[in-house]
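Q: Hi! First time doing this. I have a protein sequence and I read that you can turn it into a structure. Is that right? Here it is:
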Amino acid sequence: MLSYRPTRNLRLYFESRIKQLAQTPPMTWKPFTYQWQWQLKSSPEELWPYVADTQRVNQAAHLPVMIYTETPLETGGSRRSGHLSKFGLSIEWEEHPFEWVREREYSVLRVFKEGPLARVFIRMVLEPNSAGTLLQYMVEATPANIVGFFGALQQFGWEARRNFERVFQQIDTAIQQHRRQVFPLPVIPLAGPGQARLQELSRQLAGQGHELRWTQRLADLLLTAPDQDLARLRPYVLADTWDAPRRTMLELFLSAAKMGLLNMRWDMLCPLCRGAKIVASSLDEVKKGVHCATCNIDFEADLAQNVELTFTPHPQIRPVYEQTYCVGGPMVTPHILVHQVIEPGETRVLPVEIEAGGYRIRTQQLGVEAWLELNSGQPINALAIRADTDALQVVPLAAPSQAKPSRPDNHALTLTITNGASYAQRIYIERADWYTDAATAAQVTTLQHFRDLFSDQVLRPGEEIGVQSMTVLFSDLVGSTAMYNRWGDATSYAIVREQFAFLQRIIREYEGAIVKTIGDAIMAAFTDPAMGVGAALAIQQEINNFNAVHPNEPLVIKLGLHQGPCLAVNLNNRLDYFGTTVNLAARLEGQSHGGDVVISEKLRRDPAVDKLLQAMDIQVDTFATSIKGFDEHFCLFRLSLPSPAGQEPPGASHIFAVDAAEGS
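A: Yes, that's right. Below is the predicted 3D structure, encoded as structure tokens:
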């Protein structure tokens, strides 16, 4: 068999000729239209997270790496341009926004500025049937010149069909077989030193008390997962996928980062597209002001809302090479259920399915939004949206509908969208609870395990970053001065240390952290209000148990808690919190008699706190008082544990003295 290999001069000639043909003035070319369909066994809701993940699908289908840039638009958002090189050709295009309806379809239009093609339109549709799902894929490619004519025949007429058929069939098979790895992406084997280091550090993790099954699962992930899956590891998402406790997984990842198995990163997320706009390797790199080029907005970082802790493998274990194959597909922003681009004056009608829950409906203009709450059993089967220049109207309707939802908790809606503006508008319907999958900076920094391991992780001096909601606890040991006088320094200090030990243990158990100690008092922080109140009640119960064993010198602790916004700051190289919420929590501790817990009205009205108090045998007394430093009168709540029969409540004599003082 003879083979032919062109000389270097011939290769240069062919490359030069191709470039000349590509630069030939455009002719009127008819588009090539290709329509393919495959019958798959999985349902649309099973397939959607994978077939709509265009970044991974394109990589698995052997599409080339792409580079994207964004240009801001006066009407909000940005224009996205793409670039790639193939066969010696430079190809540039404007990528119009992806449009989609979750679990139903997506489409995208690319208009080329340079290269062999003039225009490419792609649409994928999922149609459920008795056998599973009929996946339909359509490509309409318009050549720009003779090279594009033959290239479209080759690329779309044969190569794309073969590659996408392979990828979609592999996805369907993996779903049916419940395999962990769904995408057939290449995995670079670990080098010998990296594999040895992975085994040793995994052994050390298990030796620190982390469950062996989770350390092995993490090691297996770092060993076998493709780079795309390792570029941004989210502990809560992995915990849910592995059916593991979220706190367990977060603490495992923190320990792995401390010993050099993983690297930590703080992602500042845009409140609209929720993409990571700035990535910081430590807290002192987190900035208050952030710009999102995609949405063309400026926003402020909030530790409780849009700063997320994620992880990547340590380079000495597994170098990760992140490349871009698509940036605008539906699974880039999985919280967005519907995205449509509506032309001026256009009205579009779409069938959609949405489960019960809270939703934000918005345009690309910051602040032009509306909120919708759909409840199970609610007789709503139509939704009318009108988007004007600076206002959004959303009208739920109870209209006759022939469609039935595929799942019992879903709403089958007829969605009608009208654009009343003079320019094209992007309409988004997105879940309101998107951040429940994020290990936010507020949650992480109020975890005692994090503060134990990373006490050096603080904001840069002078930086003040908001925290939308924090539950703050203050404690004070009553009568400590008299105790030191009676028992001496050594004995009294031992008792105080024992108090600190069980305070830290309980606060750790309730997913909080001690921010600082002030003499024999502490300040602690929690992101979950019910956890904060639960920790306070557990502390008082522990005091009761301690006093039952030490009746001659009972301990009495005063506790106060409040919930609200605050500022995170760097104080003495320690992450601390300041603001009205912190000041009021400190004042509430002063309202405690000892042996009780005083909480603010905001905490008492929190649904999770109310549920906790109803489930426990807790006496709740309401009282009103003024507080030094605050103008308003406060309604406060005193929580008391039931006293054992025949036993005087802890701090009873102290309670009498305080009440007498207040009465005078």
